[in-house]
Design a protein that fits this description.
Elements: H1 11-45, H2 50-77, H3 81-98, H4 102-122, H5 124-137, E1 140-144, E2 150-154, E3 163-166, E4 175-180, E5 182-186, H6 188-191, E6 197-200, E7 204-205, E8 210-211, E9 216-222, H7 228-238, H8 245-252, H9 254-272, H10 275-284, H11 288-291, H12 295-307, E10 310-312, H13 315-321, E11 326-330, H14 331-335, E12 341-347, H15 349-352, H16 357-369, H17 375-383, E13 393-398, E14 402-407, E15 410-415, H18 417-423, E16 437-442, E17 445-453, H19 460-469, E18 474-478, H20 483-493, E19 497-499, H21 504-516, E20 521-525, H22 531-536, E21 539-543, H23 549-554, E22 557-559, H24 566-600, H25 608-628
Length: about 650
């Protein structure tokens, strides 16, 4: 029995309507059951009062006829498999009334309503997951007012641009950007990563994560359905609309199916003369198990994915993921960390023998680099922040060349070879390196060259090898970077096909070529220049932690964390979901055919319609139990492997 018409509505309102409809139906069913019980007891105690029992049974049938009539009306307005079940029950009730069997007319929809309640209870695990996610966004936020004071307001009243204070132990009320402060946050419920993440000013945070120790001031950037939690909740509701091929096939021929069932019921009546057998055929053919064969696994899979930090925008992509045969992946920010890091030091020959020369050069370079916003300077300052920094004076930055300063009356120069030439410092040519190079000189002596690169993610090689084992052995690296850099990265992660110095339209063309060659490509990226390719792939996955809004909007799936090993999790979860849907479809079809056959043969006994209603719910519960196994899907990633390049 449908609790409401199957039309698109806001997620929260739809859930509220479902619970209200089920509660009303359950109340009516219990009232009807009570009247039937009273009538049965009266007839058993006083046989001469059988008319009282019939009246009570008739009254009970009228009570449960209300939800049946409403559901049939909705099924005519919004056709679908749910409606087919309602129409079949309506026909069975009319046939029972026509033959004067008021007990069956009342008991049949009552049993079906109780079965529907059991289905709702079976879905409680996924509904608890949704309610749990909602609780993460509920609570009180400390918002800064116009005068600078903080006021406590409900999280749902926050607006984009609000400044909030998040204290130790509190949940972050909405997606935002850290304005000030530093802390460790626990995002395990959102990204699936159990390790705390250190955040500071300029970094983004997700609503629902827990601030573990420090005090943070956060500027709200996304709220409501646009926030990460809102998207997860909405997509879990959308998963209810999922339909496997077998369900879509039956919906296409729903009218023929309905006519066929009516003919089988009529033939059963003509052949046996048994009204109970005819009613049993109508009830046994209700496709309730088929209706939930796909939505139940889809809801469970989306919930399991969210627990692993994977945001799936639609159940259709769960099907596509399992059929992928190729990988097209971006380099910068996807295979690499997306930021420069110090990967090597070449000391002068006279400095190599001095055990303290390396640390002194790093400390001086880090202290000087801390006064510049150049990417190379930021990388050097970040790498050396654990070292004691000497006092510097007369710091001067020459745009595009480097910095100079005084340290203990000695001149310190940090920058390019051209700066050394300009300052009259003799230095050897920079080393042959495919990334930025900066040198340092102390006094008039050149001391060292620092080599920088955008290092590969430590898990990248293992993740791509895992994808190859899962059937995505055809792998292509696309990047706008120089060929030499691209080849270095490709060699480190094990990719053979490389296209360097490509523009966004070239990335799109490469994905189209894969499709024309008969390959279903998984496209992974994080930047604006990846948006076209993400949209063109069979499935597009964006790196959500530092991906651009355009790339995230264009992608079908978003990794809330940046661990590439979750790509393999996506594939395995998809294939597990597909197998579950196939098994559900087989269970539903076999059970329905067996039940209709038994009903037509009269094997369900004199109360065949009631027996069919009870047995029909067994098939539905089998499907639900099989689907619930997906909620237990869990793949801990463990610690990251050692980085391929030494971060000094």
């Amino acid at each position: 029995m449908s609790a409401r018409p199957r039309v698109d509505s806001p997620a929260v309102q739809g859930e509220r309507d479902d619970h209200g409809g089920v509660a009303l139906q359950l109340t009516l069913a219990m009232t009807a059951a009570s009247l039937l019980l009273v009538g049965t007891i009266c007839s058993a105690i006083r046989p001469e009062a059988r008319d009282v029992g019939k009246v009570l049974a008739g009254l009970a049938s009228l009570i449960v006829a209300v939800p049946v009539a409403l559901s049939v009306w909705d099924s005519l307005r919004y056709p679908g498999l749910h409606g087919m079940t309602d129409r079949l029950i309506g026909l069975a009730m009319l046939a029972a009334w026509a033959t004067g069997d008021m007990v069956t007319a009342a008991l049949l929809p009552t049993v079906m309503i109780f079965g529907h309640v059991l289905e709702e209870r079976s879905l409680q695990s996924s509904q608890r997951a949704i309610r749990g996610l909602r609780k993460l966004s509920a609570g009180v936020a400390h918002r800064r007012g116009a005068a600078g004071e903080f006021e406590d307001i409900d999280n749902h009243r926050l607006q984009v641009g609000d400044i909030v204070e998040v204290r130790a132990g509190e949940r972050i009320p909405a997606d935002g950007l850290v304005v000030s402060g530093a802390s460790n946050i626990d995002s395990s419920l959102l990204t699936g990563e159990s390790i705390w993440t250190h955040v500071e000013a300029g970094q983004s945070v997700l609503g629902g994560a827990i601030n573990m120790d420090g005090l943070l001031t956060v500027k709200v950037t996304r709220i409501g359905d646009e926030a990460t939690l809102g998207q997860i909740i909405r997509l879990m509701h959308t998963a209810e609309q999922a339909k496997p091929p077998i369900t879509r096939l039956i919906e296409r021929y729903a009218g023929i199916y309905m006519l066929m069932i009516v003919l089988i019921a009529a033939l059963t009546w003509f052949a046996s003369g048994s009204v109970p057998a005819m009613l049993a055929v109508l009830v046994a053919s209700c496709p309730c198990a088929l209706v939930i064969a796909a939505p139940a696994p889809a809801i469970a899979a989306v919930a399991a994915a969210a627990r692993h930090g994977i945001l799936i925008r639609g159940a259709a992509f769960l099907e596509e993921l399992g059929d992928l045969t190729a990988l097209v992946i971006d380099k910068t920010g996807t295979l690499t960390l997306g930021q420069l890091a110090l990967v090597g030091i070449d000391l002068a020959a006279d400095q190599a023998a001095d055990p303290g020369a390396r640390e002194r050069a790093l400390a001086l370079a880090g202290a000087l680099a801390a006064h510049s916003n150049h990417p190379v300077s930021r990388a050097l300052a970040q790498t050396t922040q654990v070292l004691p920094r000497p006092t510097l004076q007369q710091i001067n930055e020459q745009q595009g060349l480097g910095l100079t300063a005084l340290s203990e009356s000695e001149r310190v120069v940090l920058g390019q070879h051209a700066l050394f030439v300009q300052m009259g410092i003799v230095a050897p040519p920079p080393p042959d390196h495919d990334g930025p190079v900066a040198g340092i000189a102390i006094g008039e002596r050149w001391v060292a060259w620092f080599r920088f690169a955008d290092p590969c993610r430590p898990e990248a090689a293992a993740a791509l090898s895992e994808l190859a084992e899962l059937g995505l052995a055809r792998q292509t690296l696309l990047t706008g970077d120089h060929a030499r850099v691209a080849q270095r990265v490709a060699q480190q992660v094990g990719i053979r096909h490389v296209r360097a110095q490509v523009l966004p339209q070239d990335k799109l063309a490469a994905v189209v070529e894969e499709r024309q060659a008969g390959h279903a490509a998984l496209v992974v990226g994080d930047g604006i220049n990846d948006a076209l390719a993400l949209r063109a792939g069979a499935v597009g996955i964006a790196m959500g932690e530092q991906g651009t809004d355009i790339a995230i909007a264009a992608a079908d799936i978003v990794l809330l964390g940046n661990d590439l090993r979750r790509l393999g999790t996506c594939i395995r979860l998809s294939r597990r979901c597909q197998r579950t849907i196939q098994i559900n479809g087989a269970i539903a079809l076999i059970w329905t055919v067996m039940l209709v056959g038994a009903a037509a043969a009269g094997w369900l006994g004199p109360e065949g319609a009631i027996a069919a209603a009870l047995l029909h719910n067994v098939g539905t519960l089998l499907v639900m139990a099989n689907s619930a196994r997906l909620l237990r899907f869990h793949e801990p990633l463990g610690a990251l492997p050692e980085a391929g390049e030494a971060l000094l």
